[in-house]
Amino acid sequence: MPDGSSGSRPRPRGRGTALNPSGRFESLRLSPDPEFDPAELPSPRTQFFTDSASSLITYNDSPDVGFEASLNLYRGCEHGCAYCFARPFHEYLGQSAGLDFETKIFVKTAAPALLRAELSHRSWKPQTVVMSGVTDCYQPAERAFKLTRRCLEAFAEFRNPVSIITKNGLVTRDLPVLSEMAKWNGARVLVSVTTLQSELTQRMEPRASTPDFRLRAIRELSAAGIPVGVMVAPVIPGLTDVEMPSILEAAREAGAVWAGYVLLRLPHGVKEIFLAWLDEHEPSKKARILDRLRSCRGGRLYDPRFGVRGTGTGEWADQLGNLFRIMSKKLGFCDELTPLSASHFRVPGRPQQLELLPEG
Questions:
Q1: pLDDT confidence of 342, banded at 50, 70, 90?
Q2: For 63-116, what is each residue's pLDDT tens digit?
Q3: Cα four-point dihedral sign 85, 264, 276, 247
Q4: Strands of 69-71's sheet, edge to edge?
């Protein structure tokens, strides 16, 4: 479809999209019958598949990301966020970035064992590992599989620091482990808040926690002594950008000590899905949202260049950045994340080097 246009169809209840386009690596393309009404079908149930990955920790050298090591326990995400930049990763699995991404979840069931093996390896360099760099480690599947909890227990056992990014209040389930790790500066949590409007959240992020639950998670994490920050992400120009000050204020009041933001990104198939969401939910604002986004992306809807893909360029992007910096300073947020400590790392069962004791 041409830039800025999309088809539209009713989405299944509780899902972020009704679209299920063929992946960009597939040779076959399926075209739905124009007479077919997808609303006649029941909402598809979530399917879970075993991901037989042989390794867990991945590395990146992107200057935009801010970390090197990360792990992802689930491929696909049931949160169903219409704007999710991770959707195109599903195409590498022969699946669609659309409905498949939300309903076909690949689960790394061997993750805790793989993690222990990698942390035990002589080549492992103790460092902060981020959960998750792509899909949310506390998405609904985590309630059943508990892989995040078991991996946290492994990190705690090895005294290896971990940083968590999530938009799900389920993170508070693991307060006991996280608070113990925080005592040796081994854990922090960043909570993503897109909007404070519950009704908009239910339409745009159908199976993610509501704003109240995310703020409550920040409050409980902070009270437990766990360093917690807020990510205003993504900022959708013309829709949620006006909420940046109120989100920062609410998060700071709840106990967040650091803040960041990311401008909406629409790589590959995400564009088609998000445009269809605008057609269904915000048709009167669509033109303004896209015009403003183009003004930040050099006339396009997405600019993949390092250094600007998360913040944009141009007058409006500069104004957004200035607003963020002014509000962050006013509210007393830290300028930078305090580094976590890897100095306590140990391999259980392996003899540790003894420190020399003073004579006498």
A1: very high
A2: 777 788 999 999 999 999 999 999 999 998 989 999 999 999 999 999 999 999
A3: positive
A4: 58-59, 69-71, 129-131, 162-166, 187-192, 228-235, 258-263
Contacts of 262 (CB under 8 A, 6+ apart): 231, 232, 233, 234, 235, 310, 311
Q: For the chain, give the longest Cα–Cα distance.
A: 90
- Give tens-digit pLDDT for 261-288: 999 999 988 999 999 999 999 999 999 9
* Paired tokens of 197: 């409007």
Altogether, the residues listed in the chain come to a count of 360
CB 16 within 8 A of CB 205: yes
Residue with tokens 């307060």: 175
Residue (of 261, 242, 113) closest to 193 by Cα position? 261
Would you tell me how many other CB atoms lie within 10 Å of the CB of residue 131? Answer: 22
CA distance 163 to 228: 10
Residue 43 above 80 pLDDT?
no
- How many whole angstroms separate alpha carbon 154 and alpha carbon 280? 44
Q: Give per-residue burial for 61-100: e unless 16+ CB within 10 Å, then b.
A: eeeeeebbbbbbbbbbbbbbbbbbbbbbbbbebebbbbbb
Give this prediction's pTM: 0.88
